[in-house]
Specification:
The chain folds into 2 domains: about 240 residues, TIM Barrel (Alpha-Beta Barrel), CATH 3.20.20; about 45 residues. α5 packs across α6 and α6 runs parallel beside α7. It has about 290 residues and is of the alpha/beta class. Its EC number is 2.1.2.11.
Length: about 290
C-alpha cells in the first residue's frame, strides 16, 4: 500500500462502525458513548463549519466534533457540509423558531439524522427535546447566554455572574438531564462557575466562551479563521485573517478584469499564442466558395 493508504488504514483502526437512522453504515471518530466515557478525562475540540471546505479542513486537522447549521429551506446544503467530513461526529443545529410542536420536532430531527447527523442541537422547549430524546435522537441543549433569547438575560452579556444566575444555569442543566439531553452548549458563563457546573452534571458540557472547565472546547470557524469584518466576541481567538484575504482577492479580481479590458482596447488580446491557425489552402478555398457579397 502507498503511504497515504497506510495512514488511512491506521486511522480507521480508531474509527467506530455506526449505522445511521437511514440504515447507512459508516465510520466515525466518536460515538455518544465514547464522548461520555471521556468526560473528566480529556477535553475535545469542536467547531461550527459553515461550508463543505471548512468541514473538510476541520476533519483533516483532527477537530473532534463538528456542528453544522440546519438549512430548513434546502437541507441538501447542510448535508453537503456534513458529507465533507464523513468520519467526524456531527451535530445539526436547529434554528430556534423552526417548529411549533413535538411532532414537527420529531419530523425535523429524523430528517436531519437520516441525512447523516450524529445528533441534534436544540434550543427549543424542553418538551421538544424530550420528544426527540425519547425517540432515540441524541439531543444537545443550550444554557448560559442563548443569543436569540438574550432579551431574558439583559442582552448579549455573560450569564452566571450572580448566585441567582448560577443557580438558574444549574437548574437548566438538571431540567435538560430530566428531558433526556446528553449534552449542553454553555455560552459565556464565568469560567470558574463553568468548572463547578461540569463536576455536577452528567451532561457533556460544551464551552463556548466559558473557559476550560467544559468537556468540549468550542469555537466557530468564522472566529478561528477571522472570516468577517468583526467585531469578534471576546472569547474568540483569531488564527487567520480570511477577511483581509478575501478583500485582497477582490482587489486582485478587479485588477485582473481591468487588465483584460485594457488588453482588448489596446489589441494586446488575443495574442498570436491565443489563436488557432489554419492552412492557407483552406482559407483560399473557403473564400472561393463563399465570396463576400457587396
Amino acid at each position: 500500500m502507498t503511504e497515504i493508504q497506510n495512514e488511512t488504514a491506521s486511522q480507521q483502526k480508531d474509527f467506530r462502525r455506526v449505522v445511521s437512522m437511514a440504515g447507512d453504515v459508516s465510520l466515525r471518530n466518536y460515538t455518544v458513548r465514547d464522548i461520555r466515557d471521556l468526560k473528566g478525562k480529556k477535553q475535545l475540540t469542536q467547531t461550527l463549519a459553515f461550508t463543505p471546505d471548512e468541514a473538510a479542513a476541520a476533519e483533516a486537522a483532527g477537530i473532534d466534533l463538528i456542528n453544522v447549521r440546519w438549512n430548513p429551506l434546502d437541507p441538501r446544503e447542510s448535508f453537503a457540509v456534513c458529507e465533507a467530513a464523513p468520519h467526524t461526529f456531527t451535530t445539526f443545529c436547529m434554528p430556534l423558531t423552526l417548529c411549533t410542536s413535538e411532532q414537527e420536532a420529531l419530523r425535523i430531527g429524523f430528517q436531519a439524522m437520516e441525512g447523516g447527523g450524529d445528533g441534534i442541537y436544540c434550543a427549543w422547549s424542553l418538551q421538544f427535546i424530550e420528544a426527540m430524546a425519547n425517540a432515540g435522537i441524541p439531543v444537545q441543549g443550550h444554557a448560559g447566554l442563548v443569543p436569540r433569547r438574550s432579551t431574558w438575560t439583559g442582552g448579549l452579556r455573560a450569564v452566571g455572574k450572580t448566585i441567582s444566575e448560577a443557580e438558574k444555569i444549574y437548574q437548566d442543566f438538571k431540567d435538560l438531564e430530566q428531558a433526556g439531553a446528553w449534552s449542553v452548549e454553555c455560552e459565556v458563563i464565568p469560567h470558574r462557575i463553568m468548572s463547578e457546573l461540569t463536576k455536577r452534571t452528567s451532561l457533556i458540557t460544551v464551552s463556548l466562551g466559558s473557559g476550560v472547565g467544559g468537556d468540549v472546547q468550542f469555537l466557530f470557524a468564522q472566529d478561528i479563521l477571522g472570516d468577517g469584518p468583526g467585531p469578534f466576541p471576546r472569547h474568540a481567538k483569531i488564527y487567520r485573517d480570511f477577511h483581509k484575504m478575501r478583500q485582497d482577492m477582490q482587489k486582485e479580481r478587479i485588477a485582473a478584469f481591468s487588465e483584460f479590458a485594457a488588453d482588448i482596447r489596446s489589441g494586446g488580446y488575443p495574442a498570436p499564442e491565443n489563436l488557432v491557425e489554419v492552412d492557407d489552402a483552406v482559407i483560399e478555398e473557403f473564400i472561393a466558395r463563399h465570396p463576400v457579397e457587396h
